[in-house]
Amino acid sequence: MQLLVLGSGTAIPHEMRGASGYALRADSGEVLLLECGPGSTRRWPGLGITFASVRAVLVTHHHVDHCSDLAAVMFGRNVVEGGADTPVTWLGPRGHARHLEGLERVYGSSVREASGERVVVELADGDAHRVGPFELQAREVLHVEGSIGVRVRCDGRTVAFSGDSGACPALVALCRGVDLALLECSYPAARPTTRHLNTTTAARVAIEAAPSLVVLTHFYPSCDDVDVEGEVRAAGYNGPLLLARDGLVVEVGTSPPVGQERRV
Ligand SMILES: [Zn+2]
Ligand SMILES: [Zn+2]
User: Which ligand number lies closest to the CA of residue 143?
Assistant: First the structure.
């Protein structure tokens, strides 16, 4: 399984970082999209993602920087020849079905599922769901009400994704002992935060959960001004660490981790 980074940034426009977008690609080639932030679909061709390969689309909460390309995916499936042939499961937090219905009301038939039936699964704390080769478990994390983080098992490997979250026991449990923990790290240490992580609290979660590899992401522009890795190390985390950048591809479970940049 591979982790693909489509966007390692936030809602704030940044020259090098797009808004939230990630994907897990199984050995079979099937793709689980994690978040669908604005412009993240623009990254698909460079990373080899196609409508035929996308088996499921998950968003962790309904902040725009995580979900505004949902309509682009819904629309694209209908305009690309054969785009709607692969059945897609739409995964999200409580209220996700209503959110997608709202997009259909705004954009009309162009974003309706061609088959007439959209498969939507809402995940709350403790819920599990399997789609294709991906086995998901959700935990409610500390961000906005209903925000989830997920743990995904596939090809004998496990990845945890924080979504947006402050440090909390559910996030530690989600990341405990996984092959790769993809953790948001919104801010430098100098900016305290409870509903996001900064370099200090991300380090604390990493120390407690002890995953085999930590990948930090979701960097606000203020992170450009500091040595992010240096701050994480100063906070006591000494384990394997990668800082996400757009186009990064990580082979999950390889040791030492293989991280390659692709031009996207
Ligand atoms: Zn958010
Ligand atoms: Zn966010």
Answer: 1
Ligand number with the minimum distance to the CA of 61:
1
- How far, in Å, is the centroid of ligand 1 from the Cα of 28? 31
Given a cut of 50, the residues of the chain with pLDDT beneath it are none
Give burial (CB, 10 Å; 0-12/13-18/19+) of 185.
buried
Q: How far apart are CA 154 and CA 136, in angstroms?
A: 9
Q: Is 218 exposed, middle or buried, given 0-12, 13-18 or 19+ CB atoms closer than 10 A?
A: buried
Cα 199 from Cα 184, distance rounded (Å)? 9
Q: Which ligand is nearest to the CA of 184?
A: 2
* Tens digits of residue pLDDT in 51-102: 999 999 999 999 999 999 999 999 999 999 998 899 999 999 999 999 999 9
Q: pTM value?
A: 0.96
Q: Could you tell me the distance, in angstroms and rounded to a whole number, from the CA of residue 68 to the centre of ligand 2? A: 12
Average pLDDT, the chain: 96
Q: For the chain, list the domains and their CATH numbers.
A: 2-261 (3.60.15.10)
* Residue 61 alpha carbon to ligand 1 centre in Å: 7
- 105 CA to middle of ligand 1, Å? 24
User: Which residue has tokens 């399984």?
Assistant: 1
**Ligand 1 centroid distance, CA of 255 (Å):** 31
Q: Is the dihedral of CA 184, 77, 75, 129 positive or negative?
A: negative
**143 CA distance to ligand 2 middle (Å):** 9
